[in-house]
Prior knowledge:
Two copies of one chain form a homodimer.
Chain A: H1 6-9, E1 11-16, H2 21-33, E2 38-42, H3 49-56, H4 60-64, E3 67-69, H5 72-76, E4 81-85, H6 99-110, E5 115-119, H7 128-132, E6 136-138, H8 151-168, H9 180-196, H10 205-218, H11 223-240
Amino acid sequence: MTLGASALARVRIVLVGSREPGNVGAAARAMKNMGLHALVIAGAPSLDLVAARRMAVHAADVLDDCRVVATLADAVAGCGLVVGTSGRDSVMRAGAAAPREAAPAIVATAARNDVALVFGPEDHGLSTEELARCQRVVAIPASDAYASLNLAQAVLLCAYELRLATLAGGVGEARVLAPHERLELLFAKLETALGAIGFLHGEGAPHVVRQLRRMLGRADLEEAEVDVLLGVARQIAWAARFIPPAGERA
Amino acid sequence: MTLGASALARVRIVLVGSREPGNVGAAARAMKNMGLHALVIAGAPSLDLVAARRMAVHAADVLDDCRVVATLADAVAGCGLVVGTSGRDSVMRAGAAAPREAAPAIVATAARNDVALVFGPEDHGLSTEELARCQRVVAIPASDAYASLNLAQAVLLCAYELRLATLAGGVGEARVLAPHERLELLFAKLETALGAIGFLHGEGAPHVVRQLRRMLGRADLEEAEVDVLLGVARQIAWAARFIPPAGERA
């Protein structure tokens, strides 16, 4: 099965907190070079899009059509798969895949789902909290001597791998996945419920939450499956109401 | 066999006629990101290297160590393999390989030979004559909608493919190839000799010369093999002396 260009049409590039218009313009050009068009700019209220347009050269149309939103959550709403990008040093890197490894599954998913590929600010990349919102993390296998790529360069490499994976054909039939905001609702409900039964406590709690997010994120959940897990969370929360205060337990 | 980083040490990036210092700096950064260090700047006498250094960020050492030369011939002297890069529209594109296809053989050759990867000016790329000097041509499989990559982006993609091919390991034992200037001598002698026997004539002659260059370029000739072909050229030239002027032939 050759997916053709249509799979790339459902991939959006999300730039979070970008500061340099030159980078955003160069990223737009790189996107168009690789057959991508959908750009979302998040959390960058003072970004100079006119200056960005100049660096885009013949890809000004990508910027003309881009969506500007306030938050990462807005940017990825409706996506069945959200993929974050990370430098080598990130705490999230342990579970990260190289773009070449990740690309076939991403384009296969994009055949039937909107997919977001998320890039952080130039200076420090996506935060741990932002990466925790992503179901997959990819990291470019750069040299230890200088592992930090320019933003537009990172966009180019990821888009290039998606393009080549698209040209190479897919990896089987893709399923329709739950939109990202349903997944976020599930994580919120689970966290509340698990907190209520005392599972999440102390300094390690955020780490455990991230682990849960990663595991369920990797599971490529369909909407009906999210509903099942929401039911589990509801049931846990219901049960928690019966736990007596610490002082009153046997 | 894993080639490790040593193969990349013998790959030099040659930028011909670059105009934008920002591109050169970004290319230096991309090189270091991918574990390359040897940069040669050719035919760019007015390039502002101080401005380039700013865009290199933490790869200023690549620019500090770069070699600045007058011509492409100077830049590729001593190389066993010279690989040119080309946009989609070039006349040379027909025989071009994608970077991913070409990379394993390039890094295998670089284990025992100096290898040059040559990039043309920002506006129009390498000329037909410059590409004719290259034994191999690679072209990035970009989108038809916008096939022209920024110079630094093209350097990044090629360096990335070389890096991944290096990490993946080589493709058998590499031979020691004839240095580029010996090959150029051979082509010059062949052209003279073939001209002398009337093989090269009329408007089609340059095209035939390019075809010969491409064929022999692809052959990865060793020095002893070049000597054999130089002997052939010498013999043809010797024979040509006996050809009577057109008016005196039977």
